[in-house]
Specification:
With 322 residues, this protein is α+β, with helices and mostly antiparallel strands. The protein contains 14 helices and seven strands.
Length: 322
């Protein structure tokens, strides 16, 4: 905690606030995303939705448009759903315990604890990816932190080390240690405030602890995307709310009917990785002479499409065909 006050991060845009809305927003965005990538999204979100009520009133498509590029789009949908629940069930007042916060969509044990600690001073343990690495090395816990048995041990130590006061500073210290000192490769042990009692450092095991995720070959899935271009516009279709890229706009995966195609060409294949599989996209660019009948989807100007609620591969292809 002394180290955090002296050398930890002090200038992140959500620090220095006890506003649970701002803290919640930052913690959800920081799930599986680096701080540097989150900051511009966080500032844009706050600019457009300065209060929980404003976010709850928003259209889901606008929320996803502002989320576009952050990835893991279910987080954006859950953020919107949680805002609506807080307004309808709690009259816009955040639940003040980690247990109650876990009842909201998209909040697991660690994220709920971080919000409760920062906003309400609850003495709650966290265990995000960075903290798992810090505790695994400090306590000398071998194995992959995502393994159930290893994770259970780490939760035990996370709870054991909780201080009696100043929980917000302690929680931030753990996060800062993992993000800036006890990093995955080449940790800066010389700058670590607990290096003298760290088991992994004393035993020369910092390169082996924690163990990486067990490797397994991810399956490939194939998709053909039809890039229909007509008078400077492209055709996009909105995906169902449930499933991959739910609620976002993508190119049609089957050739649309009622459209007269004057020429077509295959573009270079595009590959995109997900947690559980890899997607190989075959884009087919079609120049459209005439639209004989309206079908599902939306014709949108090429430049406007890039700012719509579209996933990264769609934005990449829009840039290609400009």
């Amino acid at each position: 905690m002394e180290w955090q006050r002296r050398a930890g991060r002090q200038d992140l845009p959500w620090q220095g606030s006890r506003d649970p809305y701002r803290i919640w927003l930052s913690e959800v965005m920081l799930q599986q995303t680096q701080v540097a990538a989150v900051i511009p999204y966080y500032e844009r979100f706050l600019g457009r939705f300065p209060t929980i009520e404003a976010l709850a009133r928003a259209d889901e498509e606008e929320v996803l448009r502002l989320w576009s590029g952050l990835g893991y789009y279910a987080r954006g949908r859950n953020l919107h759903l949680a805002a609506q629940r807080i307004v309808s069930r709690y009259q816009g007042k955040f639940p003040q315990t980690s247990a109650a916060l876990q009842e909201l969509p998209g909040l697991g044990r660690s994220t709920a604890a971080a919000i409760a600690a920062f906003a309400f001073g609850e003495r709650a343990a966290i265990l995000d990816g960075n903290v798992k690495r810090v505790l695994a090395r400090y306590c000398g816990i071998a194995g992959f932190p995502g393994d159930k048995k290893v994770e259970k041990k780490l939760w035990g130590f996370s709870e054991k080390f909780l201080p009696g006061k100043d929980i917000a500073i302690y929680t931030q210290a753990l996060m800062d240690l993992g993000a800036t000192v006890c990093v995955r490769a080449n940790p800066r042990c010389d700058a670590c405030p607990v290096r003298k009692t760290c088991v992994a450092r004393k035993k020369g095991l910092t390169a082996k602890i924690p163990a990486p995720r067990p490797k397994k070959a991810l399956p490939w899935k194939e998709a053909t995307w039809w890039l229909m271009r007509h008078n400077g516009e492209v055709l996009l279709e909105r995906r169902p709310s449930a499933g991959l890229w739910g609620g976002l706009w993508t190119f049609p995966e089957s050739r649309p009917r009622g459209i007269e195609v004057t020429s077509r060409s295959e573009l270079a294949t595009l590959e995109h990785g997900f947690t559980h599989f890899k997607l190989r996209i075959r884009p087919v660019l079609c120049e459209v002479g005439r639209v004989r009948k309206a079908g599902p989807g939306m014709w949108i100007d090429l430049d406007e499409a890039k700012g719509a609620a579209v996933p990264t591969p769609v934005r990449t292809l829009l840039e290609r065909i400009r």
